[in-house]
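Friendly challenge for the regulars: who can give me the C-alpha cells for this chain first? No prize, just bragging rights.
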Amino acid sequence: MYVRKKKNKSGTTSIQIIDKSSGKYQVIKTVGCADNQQQEKDLRQQAYELIPTLTKQSRIDFCFSEDELFVEQLKQGVKKIFVVGPELILGKIFDEVGYHQISHSLFRHLVITRLVYPGSKLKTVDYLLKYKGIYTNKDRIYRYMDAFDLKYKETAIDITFEHTRQILNNQISVAFYDITTLYFEASDEDDLRKTGFSKDGKAQNPQILLALLVGTHGQPLAYEIFEGDKFEGHTLIPVIQAFKKKYNLPSLIIVADAGLLSADNITELTGLNYPFILGARLKNETDTIKQQILSNVYTDATTITIQKPNNIRLIVNYSAKRAKKDAHLRKQGLERLEKSLKSGKLTKEKINNRGYNKYLKIKNEIAVEIDYKAFQADNKWNGLKGYVTSCNLSQAAVMDNYKQLWAIEKAFRISKTDLRVRPIYHYLERRIKAHICIAFCSYKIYKELERNLKLKNIPLSTEQTINELKTIYQAQVILPQSKKKTNVLLPLNVQQQMILKAFDIKF
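First reply, four minutes later:
Bragging rights claimed.
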C-alpha cells in the first residue's frame, strides 16, 4: 500500500490509500480532499497512520516534505529495518584504530556489541539477530574464542598500543599502573581462577587479577592477567619489564597507588633504573621521618620534601579540603564503631588493622572497647598526602602526575559497569583470556569515542552518545517503480543528526 494524491477538476486534491497487491490499482480509502497545502499535509499524515491498521502491521513513522513522493512510497517497499548507529560510528572508530586488521567478522561484532549491549554471549547472539539481522550462535562464538587467544591477542594489544602512541604524539613518557579483581559466578577453582582478596567484595568467589597500564587521559596501553590469589605487589615489576622491552621504551615513569608501595618493589624499580611515583603510606614511615612530617606547620597547599636513601624523595602535601574530608570520614567510622559496640556486635575477632577497626582494643582481657587516644592521634594526619618518587620532576609535576591515576580508576569502573566485564561466566582459560581482550579493545573504542566527542565539541557524554546510536535505524526498501533495493536512514532526532554530521556520515 502507498499514499497517492489525485488532482480534481475542482482544483482540490484527493488523498487516497492505494493497493496494488492483486496486480491492479485499487483505491482502499479516500482519506479526504484538501483545498490548500496544509490540509494536504494533514491528510497525508492521517493516511500514513491508517495504513498499519489496514495492513495489520506495526506502525513505522516517516517524516516527509510536500514534494518527496519517494519517501511517501517507502512504506510499501520496506523489507527490513536494522540498528546501524553503532556500526556507523563505533565501526568507523574500530577501523581507524586499526582493529580491522583482525579480519574475522565475529571480532568486530563482539567488540562493538560489548559497548552497546554488554552481557553474556547468549545475549550477544540475541542482539545480533534481532537488531542487526546477523545470525550466529553461542557455540560458534565459543569456538572462535577458543582460537582467539593464540592467534589474535598480541595483535590486538599491539594495535591498541600503536594507536595510543600516535594520538599521544609518540610521547609515552608516563604509564599509570593499577590492578583489580574480576570474580566468577562458578565456585570451582583451577590454576587461574582462585579465591583471594577481592576488591569486589566477593571473597567466596574464585577470581583473577587484571593489571592495566594506561597513558595520559586514560588511553589504554597494555594489560595482563594473573592468578586470583597472587599478591598484587608482585605483579608490578613483571608487567613493566615486559612492556618496556616489547615496545623499546627506554624512559618511562611508572605511576602507581600506595597499594603497590613495598620495599621489594622500590628496591627492584631502583635497581632497574625505572623512575617511579608511588603513593606513600605516611604512618608506615620510620619514627624519624614521621617526626619530621609532623614537626612542620601546615597551611593550605604547603608542600615539603624529605630526602631518603638512594636518591628517593618523599613529598608531603597538605590540603585544607582534604583535611576536612579526612576528619569527616574518620568521625563517621568512629560513630559506626560506637554503634556496633552498644549493640554488642563487636568481639575480639573484630580487632584488626582493617579500616577503623584499628581503634579497637581489649579491656581487662575480656571486653572490647574503643581506643580514643589512637583516634585523636590519627587526627594529626588529616589533610596530609605523601608521594614517594625517584624521578627528577618538580613537586608540582609529581603531584599532578599522581592525580592522573583517577583515569585508571575510571577505566576499571567503565570496564566493570558500562562494559560489564564481570562477573565472568567462562571457565576455560583460553575463553577467559579472549573475553578480557575483547573488553580491552571495547574500552579502547570507548576512549576514542570520548576523545572524538571532545575534539568535535559535541555536548554529549560518551554514555549519552552510545544511547543515541542504539536508536539510529536503517530501512532496506524496494523502490516502487524500479524495484531496486536501497537503504535509507530513518528520521533522526537533533542529537543523532549532530553526531552523524560530526563524524562525516551522510544522511
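Confidence is low (pLDDT under 50) at residues 56-70. DSSP finds 17 helices and 16 strands in the chain. Your move, everyone else.
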